[in-house]
């Protein structure tokens, strides 16, 4: 799977670089506000202040449109409130995500973005217990967001990822859970 991800990334970056008018590379870091939705109960809650970070390449296609492939490490998950003990059990899902964002530059500095994302589950823990085998190893979603970039390359982004696939892999369970992640990032483009 690592070889497939590497080959995909090199292909995307290589192909788009050959077709590009202007290319910028950058890095970003931010906070996730994440939970799951679907066949859940009222005990499932949002996890806040978990991290995402990674690198991107923005390829200018026209004056108004660009393509931005990314490779991001993202800590996601959810919290379950135990009614009996009154404690919260946090399920942490660590993904390597590959968003492929199309960007429309509304005005100088401000852009709207949308695109698909594939996520590879690296690990899953409920407190200190490994629960990776209860979640599917691949997730697919759609991102919608906006970004504001200053002339010096500093940028600020807000994005929401709507999970499209059921991530529940518990044998015999028909419950369907999907990731839902709000992300806020700060980044820097190296020209």
In short:
With 191 residues, the protein is mainly β. The chain is built from 1 helix and 10 strands. A hairpin with a 4-residue loop joins strand 8 and strand 9 (154-163).
Relevant terms:
10 strands, 191 residues, mainly beta, Porin, 9% helix, 1 helix
Description:
The protein is mostly beta strands and 191 residues long. The protein has a single domain, classed as Porin (Beta Barrel), CATH 2.40.160.20. The chain contains 1 helix and 10 strands, in the order αββββββββββ. The chain has one helix at residues 2-19; strands at 22-38, 44-45, 47-60, 65-81, 88-107, 110-126, 129-130, 138-149, 154-163, 177-190. The protein has an 8-stranded antiparallel barrel. A hairpin with a 2-residue loop joins strand 5 and strand 6. The protein is elongated and about 55 Å long. It starts with a helix and ends with a strand. The mean pLDDT is 87.
């Amino acid at each position: 799977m690592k070889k497939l991800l590497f080959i995909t990334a090199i292909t995307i970056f290589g192909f788009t670089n050959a077709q590009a008018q202007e290319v910028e590379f950058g890095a970003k870091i931010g906070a996730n506000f994440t939970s799951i939705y679907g066949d859940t109960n009222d005990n499932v809650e949002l996890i806040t202040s978990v991290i995402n970070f990674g690198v991107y390449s923005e390829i200018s296609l026209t004056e108004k449109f660009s393509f931005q492939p990314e490779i991001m490490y993202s800590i996601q998950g959810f919290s379950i409130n135990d009614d009996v003990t009154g404690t919260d059990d946090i399920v942490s899902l660590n993904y390597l995500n590959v968003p492929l964002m199309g960007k429309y530059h509304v005005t100088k500095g401000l852009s709207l973005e949308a695109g698909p994302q594939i996520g590879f589950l690296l690990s899953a823990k409920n407190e200190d217990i490994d629960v990776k085998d209860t979640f599917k190893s691949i997730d697919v979603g759609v991102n919608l967001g906006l970004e504001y970039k200053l002339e010096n390359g500093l940028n600020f982004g807000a994005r929401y990822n709507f999970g499209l696939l059921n991530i529940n892999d518990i044998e015999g369970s028909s419950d369907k859970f999907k990731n839902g992640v709000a992300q806020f990032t700060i980044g820097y483009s190296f020209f």
